[in-house]
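Exercise 7. Given the components listed, write out the predicted structure of the assembled complex. Treat all entries as one system.
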Amino acid sequence: MADDLFGEMVYLDNSAATRLDERVLDAMRPYFFDTYAVATSDFGYSLGVEAREALDGARSDLAALLGAGEKEFIFTSGSTESSNLALKGVALALGEKKGKHLITSAVEDFPVLNAARALERQGFTLTVLPVDSEGFVDPQALEAAFTPETILVSIQHANQEIGTIQDIETMAGMCRQAGVLFHTDATHSFMRLPLDTGQIPADLVTVSAHTMHGPRGTGGLYVRKGTPLAKWMDGGFQEFDLRAGVEDIAGAVGFAVAAKLITLEETERIRSIRDHLLDRLLGEIPHTTLNGPRNRRLPQNLNVTFHYVEGESITLQLDMRGFAVSTGSACFSASLEASHVILGIGGDHERAHGSVRFSLGRYNTMEDADAVFEALAEVIPALRAISPLSPKE
Amino acid sequence: MKFPYNETVLEHFKHPRNVGELEDADGRAMEGSPACGDMVSVTIKVNDDTHVIDDIKFQSYGCASNIATGSIITELAKGKTLEEARKITWKQASEELGGLPPVKAHCSVLAVEGLRAAVRDYEEKHGLVTEQDPTTMEVVRKRLKHVMNPLSGLDIVRTDLVKAIEVHSGVARVLVDLPSNHQFAHAIKDDITDKISPLWDIERVDVNFTE
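Answer.
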């Protein structure tokens, strides 16, 4: 267990960023020092052909993991770029031709939400679907929101803060039926949940390496064959002429290796650590509420509100004890705004301010869960003892 | 390790002084609201002859800078006269703590306001407030500077949310530049009412929104 100022950090913020796996780094290394050439065509020089083969290999591995063809996956700089390309690319391709209506949900992560709002400022109409108290979008509400002008629906696969898994199979099916394109942000679910584009009729899927012990700055976008998508970053003809720029071969290789390293067994191990922590927190610390659903939840995610205390105080107390977690409190964020997800599920500000997210990864153990629980069992009563909101004994 | 606060702030955060609530307090105040994410309560025990603050306690629902400022403010005020305590500023508290991040000013200023409000509460209860001037627009505006705009963490006057103030025969009207269905509309309305309604000649507070 970490002591006050020195010693090992127990890192529980894996949905924000993850520690790189050494095996990923080993796989990437040759593309920095040996095969560092730009990816060339078959008629280029041999070092360039080797680079292209590595890129194509990584692409076909990742596409296969999504049940897709190798020409249906493009590399990007991460999920922010992927979601921006999906939304703005479709808007640019279909806005004038077909219509200017977009649909998304209130709990999307910022790339989708803010790309949609940017398009709204450009004259598109935006419907933001509300969610229920556990964060679920009602598929019936989606169907009711379709208009003849609707061109794209973007509903995430699983939520970044409270882990809610949306019924994207049903919603993507509704879109297919209505002739509307469907994008899903799978940044937090890719490889942790089944996601087969052969089964789920999504047209665009955002994924990223940074949430799976892969390199930061590498992401991808699944683009179903025939999806109208306009290129908006101009330059060369890379990535099937959808995304210009010299390819990051090392990043692509690292992403593919990182994705392949995730196993069902590991995910189940993480889920059991999460469940253990969830049971202890809700069972042993009074006035603690689970944010998000108990089931149909991302296996690595836990989010609770400790009532009567403020999140930044909790995270700082934990930090001083060697634990890294995040909170939906306004005080913690650079923008000083409370979590739009907690507010979106109908929580008040007090619920957002006292919320703490634990997101687990490969390097977490059952001991970590017990250690952070023990720390919280000290910190929460101590902070409540000085809070004017605490119920009187 | 790199923490966002200096050692003194962290020390007061970890071991806040004078925490709690004085049961038989002579003056008490609560500043802030859960909507803004920070609240401070201050209770004081005052010697009726010397007007010296004999005892003081605070409670905090807030971040580290809020807790640390609450703690330091009780140390600064204890043993001081009401007159001296009222003059303690946020700047003084911040300096005593070795500096606070500017972005956290709004969380920490609450403790200073809490102390001043507790002093005022004592004075009002003990008939020490002689001036019963009629409430003017300026008085209302001054009080509105204690209402936070949760979008920015600054007060609603400074962030231009107050479009109009009217005071007429016991009714104070405040027009706020937000849609009435805005996520913070309700919290801001409650906060404005809490701050304005204690004024001695105000019977009703009307908060309206521009949309």
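Discussion: The longest helix of chain B spans residues 105-125. Helices of chain B lie at 7-14, 64-77, 82-86, 90-96, 105-125, 137-144, 185-196.
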